[in-house]
Design goal:
With 126 residues, the chain is an alpha+beta fold. The protein has helices at 2-12, 19-36, 82-85, 97-104; strands spanning 42-49, 52-59, 107-112, 118-125. It has a 4-stranded antiparallel β-sheet with strand order 1-2-4-3, covered by helices on one side.
């Protein structure tokens, strides 16, 4: 539902051309909130400011996001691994969400909300 609302609002604002990036960022932020605060309330904010749209997702978890370092790979570094392609073995695919958010946004961060929780936010330029 949030995805549809974001798409609708971007359309209203005449910003449909950035929908792919905005929806990817929103998906990553919501996925992290669901992962770290399962079965808890999650809030989503989506606003427009000068030259950017702001996505923010709140969850009640006290765990702060950790961005893993991105390692550049060459084709020589990649070795086919049938086990990694088997459904249910996703260990090698985790930890890429926040680097994606950083790459697609002009600014992003975390704002704590005492006594618990935090807003994780990103600004996508248009």
């Amino acid at each position: 539902m949030a995805r549809s609302l974001v798409e609708f609002r971007l359309q209203e604002w005449g910003l449909a051309w950035i929908a792919g990036d905005v929806l990817l960022v929103a998906g990553e932020l919501v996925a992290n909130a669901v992962k770290y605060a399962p079965d808890q309330e999650i809030r989503v904010r989506f606003t427009r400011e000068a030259g950017v749209v702001v996505l923010a997702v709140w969850d009640s978890s006290g765990a702060m996001p950790v961005v893993r370092p991105v390692v550049e790979l060459t084709l020589d570094d990649i070795v086919p691994d049938e086990w990694a392609l088997d459904p249910g073995h996703d260990e090698g695919t985790r930890g890429r969400g926040l680097p994606i958010v950083q790459a697609l946004s002009v600014d992003c961060g975390v704002t704590e909300t005492p006594p618990c929780g935090k807003w994780v936010w990103a600004k996508v330029a248009f």
